[in-house]
Amino acid sequence: MCDVLYEGKSKLVCRGEDDSSVLIRYKDTATAFNSKKKEELAGKGRLNAEISNILYAYLADNGVKTHTIKVVNDTSILVRKAEIIMVEVIIRNVAAGSFSKKYGMPEGTELQNTIVEFCLKSDALGDPMINESQITAIGIATKDEIEEMTVQALKINRLLCGLFKKTGIRLVDFKLEFGRAGGEILLCDEISPDSCRLWDTDTGKKLDKDRFRHDLDSVLDGYRDVLRRLKNV
To answer: Is the pTM of this model over 0.85?
Structure first.
C-alpha cells in the first residue's frame, strides 16, 4: 500500500521517493456527472494507465514537458511534484457533449477552428467555464502562464490528432491539466479515454467515457480497443 496524500475520483496521489516526487496510482473507479454516477470497473485503472503512459511518452519524444519520471508498474507512475494550476484546459475539434447542447450544434459537426476553453477546477462549483481575464483577476495564473498553456495545448492537439488518425480514431475533444515545477509549466494528470472523446473514424463508435455516461454496452471494450490500436501504430 502507498502512503496516500490525496484521493481523487480516479487516482490516488501517494508519497514519492523524495520531496520532489509523488506516486500516482490509477483506480478502477468510474465516475460521471460530478460523481453522481459511480461504479467500479475491474481493470479500468490499468487500461487508463497504459494508454496515458503511451501518449505521454509520445508527447515527451516530441518536445512536450510532462511530469512523468518513470512507470513503476501497470497502475502506478512516479511523477515530479507540481503545483497544479487550478484550471482545466479543454480542446475541441468536433462539436460534442456540453458544447453541442449549449450552442445547438449536432454532435459530430466539424468545427471551423480548434477551440480552447478554460474551466475552473472545482467540483464544488461544477467546474464552470472561466475566461482569461477572470483567471488573472482571481490570481489562478498569470497572462504568460495562460499563453504557455494555450500554446502547449494546441501543440498537444496537433500531435495527438496525428497519432490517433493513424489508428483510425477521431480525437473529438479532451481535457488537459498543467502544473508548476522548477520554474516550468508541465503537463500533468492523464490523457486517457476518461479525459478524451475518441470516436472510430469510420463508424463513429464511441471508445471513451461516454460509454459509461450513457449506459452503452461493454464500457471497457472501447478502452481496450484504443489501447490495442495505439500498440499497433
So the answer is: yes
Instruction: At 140, list the grid cell.
Output: 489562478
Closest CA to 44 of 30, 33, 34: 30
* Rg of the chain taking only CA atoms, in angstroms: 17
Grade residue 34 by pLDDT with cuts at 50, 70 and 90: confident
Structural domains of the chain in order of their starting residue, each with its CATH number: 4-80 (3.30.200.20), 83-218 (3.30.470.20)
Q: Helices (DSSP H) in the chain: which residue ranges? A: 44-61, 97-103, 132-137, 143-167, 210-213, 219-231
Cα–Cα distances (Å) from 140 to 33, 84, 85, 130, in that order, read 24, 10, 7, 11
Copy the grid coordinates of residue 220. 471497457
pLDDT in tens, 77-100: 999 999 999 999 999 999 999 999
Q: How far lies 233's CA from each of 9, 40, 179, 197, in Å?
A: 31, 30, 30, 19
The one-character DSSP state at 56 is H
Interstrand relation of 196-200 and 110-120 (parallel, antiparallel or unpaired): unpaired
The alpha carbon torsion through 45, 192, 162, 107 (nearest 10 deg) reads: 130
Question: What gap in Å lies between CA 86 and CA 108, rounded to an integer?
Answer: 29
153-170: pLDDT as tens digits: 999 999 999 999 999 999
The Cα 114–Cα 150 span in angstroms is 11
